[in-house]
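Listing 4. Sequential folding, example run.
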Amino acid sequence: MVSKFRSPDNKVLLVLFLGVLMGALDIAIVGPALTPIKDYFGAASRDMTWVFSIYILMNLVGTPIIAKLSDMNGRKKMYIASILLFSAGSLVVASAPSLSIVILGRAIQGFGAGGIFPVASAVIGDMFPPEKRGRALGLIGAVFGIAFIVGPVVGGVLLMISWQAIFLVNLPIAVLLLYLAVKYIPSSSPRKKVPFDWAGMIVLSIMLGSFVFGVNQLDTTDLISSIVSTKVLPYLVASILLLFFLIAIEKRSVNPIITPILFGSRQLKISHTLAFGAGFCEVSLVYLPMLAVASFSISPSGSSFMLIPSVLALSVGAPTFGRLLDKIGSKKVINFGTACLTVGMLLLAAFVSNWTMFFISTVIVGFGLSALLGAPIRYILLNETNEQHRGSAQGLMTIFTSTGQLISAAVIGAIIGSATNPVAGFSTAYLIIGVFSLALVLVSTRLKPK
């Protein structure tokens, strides 16, 4: 594809915004449906974990593949393909006669959703000059905060109809999106045809699958024994060995799915580290309702509302930091974000039983995450890569973020599960995340100035 900036169009931004919102909402509203799905099929509670796990796995696998295909075949085609896959998966889930088919549908959904955000970010890189990318990325990044505010409410309303309605609602949205995408997203000339990296795709898929499966089998109440068990260790070892095998394959490939050039500069290496760290810290939000139940004796149903301050901060912070990127550059924004994360996490660790400090610290954490998860890291990647590798770079960032999330969930779960006093366990977990965030502050100082 020939790299040149096209006239940015608010209609294109709207199409990208709605696509990312559809994928993000599906994460936020599916939680309330788990119990009705379990009761509907008479499934075991342990089997229900696969409704989430298979989505994460296929999302992780689909991201680099669709991102690479968007570099080869054009953004528009792959954005439309991602929406079609996601909506097809939604239809499979809603019409499923058994839990196995539900899980199959979630796998299709996850694979399709894996392409929506990276391809949307790459479209912004193609259309906007560097000085205007931050604002556009900030608007897209704010989608996740909006989804987590609106999602539980939408889910509750749709559940009054049926659990199938939660998935069927994606279909009319997808039809509208397909129409808008065909009409407004500009077509781009595909690059000269080169062989697709099938060997890299297969090894990458097996490697990520082994890693996700192994992590999901961890028993967080006895982490060390669990790691060395036959349910976990073989899969983790296999994923490590396959990583070295993948590196060897990609170095020899004429069109690698994970391009070695994406690790070439210091700026890119720091971005990948920050993406991993952002994912690691993001999981802390998931445990805030549990902390509220343990510390303040709130009911489980009411504890989810304790996320509202941090999610509101994330929703406001994402577009704000996006605009600041264009004015002051990524280094200052990320320095501020990692500092907020550090302060917020350490305050949470120190005042786990104080209502006022709980809300103050979660707002600070929300602002910190919005300076990492939304636009800033993607902004660096867009500016450090050319159009030929832009989609692949966005996909690689998602892999690092998801890996951080998986490892963090296992670590935090182990700390909380092994603590005799749950509140003390949460304090220790957030202290560790705070120290980890401090390390991210030091890493971010190595970014180059604007």
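-- end of first protein; second protein begins --
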Amino acid sequence: MPKISPKLAICIVYVAAMMMDGLDATIVGPALLAIGGALGVSPAATNMVEVSFLVSFALVIPAAGWLADRFGTRRVFLGALAVFTLASGLCGAATTAGGLVAARVLQGLAGGMLAPVGMAMLFRSFPPEERLGVSRFLMLPTTLAPALGPILGGFLTDHLSWRWVFWINLPLGLATVLFGLLALPEHVEEDAGRFDLRGFALATPGLGLLMFALGEGAARGWGDPLVLGAGLLGACLLALLIPAELRSPAPMLDLRLLADAPFRSAALVAVLASGGLLGMLYVFPLMYQDALGATALDAGLTVFPESLGLMLATAAIGWSFPRLGARRVMALGLLGAAAAFVLMSRVAPGTSPWAVRALLLAVGFFLGHAVLAVQTVVFDTIADEAMGRASSLLSVLRQIGGAAGVAASAAVLAASGGAGLGAYQAALLASVAFLGGALLFALQIRPAPAPQLRAEAEPSV
């Protein structure tokens, strides 16, 4: 094999891995109805396919940096990519809902390490003056994959099988792992520091059990002993986590940062906006297929404009943010998205598909503005030495917010009958409630005079 520049090798492996990771975040939605039908579970119960991935993804983020420093970025990154690829194969081969959820947990644990470890490889390879140019070059393929995910998921479900929404990762994953073994350089830190084992031991089962209870409550019923026991035990573990993290000199999740009021308000806006968006993206494809008779491909094509709206928001935010300020951009964005959600809940069998797509475009445009504004100001009051811990905390909270949004929508769907247009409409309104909560916290953010948009802020809805 010809010798390849380490910088080029890192870029190739990073882009391939982020495309797989990003695609997996959006490709499954249009396939959920087919998955539920094949595995014998109700539409409301399919929420665990998404919730299990989101929660396990979040749990490993704080540990990713330490693992990479301790064992080497190349070893950890390629190991995570290999496990992610294996888990994709297991997801596609699942014959029971429980087997699919277990494989999704494994996939999430591996996927949660790819972005932070991959970013560390990039930053160590490129000096500061080259990073912006590299980021812009890599942004197109890594944002295109999640944008195309709904269309690809719908096409594969309709023309092959829902199993191919997972198996599509296998050829690219295997090729990337083999290429990385041959071309990637290794880097190991001499002193990786201490790992917060107590925090990890409390957070992992605590969040897992609580999200299991929220997800399974929709299928088993809230009075089920397993649901009640898991929920209570998870809540107790998380209650123990808070004082443990506050006392730890090197916490896995630095909860002390939430004492900073501007950071706390902006973070809660991001968390609740994520819950609202992912709850809608879970419910609406199910509603469009199950209650309105659309195909999986139709559902994917209808959801796709949300990504286009986000791209438009990325272009427009440079004009709107300096003129309106963070609080107004967030408030208007959240109000616009909430209005679009309400109108989506009124979609009926005779509604034009183009009208529905226009609503999804509006969701991306308005919610994209709100999220980009949050990303621009959320770290304004955080000291430089705490920036890494604040970023890790925000990433974890945003993933948990998304999982809570999906679980809440599924719970409302199940409580409203689990099927039928009315049940889906009620579940969509639950997502509106998340955006309403985000709006309340956005209004607490003090306006700043004519701020300049930061070039490094990238959309991550």
